[in-house]
Write a structure and sequence with these properties.
It contains one helix and eleven strands; from the N terminus they run E-E-H-E-E-E-E-E-E-E-E-E. The protein is mainly beta and 155 residues long. It has one domain. The chain is globular and about 45 Å long.
């Protein structure tokens, strides 16, 4: 009998909706993101050392430098928000945050998912980083709904 090894895969998907004051979706972005080395290290630390690490915050930034496995922070963090909900469905964990109208205004060129973080910029450990193909503009007349799904699979 032959045993085939499978290499587990971690895939992240970010879904961003820009909502106007009337509740209309002005723009919608969905794309893959990069689970970085420090995020993988947190998973391993949880498995081996029985540590309890979990994503707690999302951050927005203004630098569009390509995401790299070695990233440990956003390149130009501009705003940070605590995750408002987290759920598990099958082999996926989904994290959501709501950025209210008055919370932030500006151009968003990078997003990060942080574990064990606080509301202080650059706190915690970067789990995943996303660079949208085109910058996202948020005014004070817009809100953002951000969902970040991390899926684990055997292939």
């Amino acid at each position: 009998m032959q045993v085939k090894d499978s290499i587990p895969k971690i895939k992240g998907i970010v879904d961003i909706q820009v909502i106007d004051k009337d509740g209309n979706v002005k723009a919608h972005y969905t794309d893959h993101n990069l689970v970085v080395d420090s995020g993988i290290a947190l998973i391993l630390d949880t498995l081996v050392n029985n540590k309890a690490h979990r994503p707690t915050h999302m951050a927005l930034g203004t630098n569009n430098t390509a995401a790299a496995n070695t990233d440990t922070s956003l390149k130009a963090e501009a705003y940070r928000k605590a995750i408002t909900s987290s759920t598990i469905t099958g082999n996926s964990a989904k994290y959501a945050a709501f950025i209210a109208f008055a919370d932030y205004a500006g151009t968003i060129s990078e997003l990060g998912l942080f574990a064990d973080a606080s509301d202080t910029a650059s706190s915690g450990t970067l789990f995943s980083r996303f660079i949208p193909t085109t910058a996202i503009t948020k005014t004070l007349a817009d809100a953002l709904v951000i969902s970040w799904t991390i899926t684990f699979s055997a292939s």
